[in-house]
Amino acid sequence: MQANCSCHTLSASATRQSLALPSRAVPFIPRLTAGLGSSQARRGVALTHQRVTARPAVNVPAYTVCKAASAAKIAPPSAVAHLRFSRGSPSKVRRVLDQIRGRSYEEALMILEYTPYRACELIIKTLVSAGANAKENLGLKKLKLYVSECYCDEGPILKRIKTRAKGRANRIAKLTNHISIRVQEKAETS
Question: 4: which strand partners?
């Protein structure tokens, strides 16, 4: 089944092959980790004895990639800043990022200045960097910027041992995170 277009065309069989998982892949599925406890479920520990395979795609329509259609939808310029391998729990950073998502650049800075969380310092640093990138690299005005996208991913976990009574030891997980903030100009409505 082929779609007719003057540009590029992907057949249904090629689309099926691109959607299929490798035979040895074990994707993370939260329902499999529900019984493992919150810390393991949060870190994406999947049960290896329950293999999950992708369902075969049946009657997948052919997708058409057209240069003219993609050229018509030009995304507004945006600047991004990343802060990688910063110490702290990703969940504690996400609760602050949820407060500034979709807000203007200046309003987000004011909210972060008066929010009493330690993660705010790292987010302010990243947000100011994203604003500077927008001004210097793209020539955008900071007054028109807003936080279009912000998220926090989990970084590597530093594993440490805490000695306890009677010769025992407890595992301590020191979490790290990666903060990403994207800013862009507001669309002008006429």
Answer: none
